[in-house]
């Protein structure tokens, strides 16, 4: 999601850094545009949790606190997903490989280290 905002040059709105050359009305319109863009990109189940947020920066911080925290619980869940990761009988090898790479990227992003003892 952040990649989309960076690509269109709107990352600064999510971070709360107001541009000096914009008046309050222009800033609010820009923020509303980004808020709706983020809302359109997230799943309905997640949207229900953050629907009441009125600004893009508050929405972004809420999403980060809910889904991007590197807590012990999140790390343990990722480790458990790795240890229980199995290929289903009818699953394509390509799909299984994509899921595995995604899991490895999640582990890397959360700075989870797997020891030989694990």
UniProtKB/TrEMBL annotation:
Pfam families assigned to the protein according to its UniProt record, in alphabetical order: Retrotran_gag_2
Protein name per UniProt: Retrovirus-related Pol polyprotein from transposon TNT 1-94
Q: What is the lineage of its organism?
A: Eukaryota, Viridiplantae, Streptophyta, Embryophyta, Tracheophyta
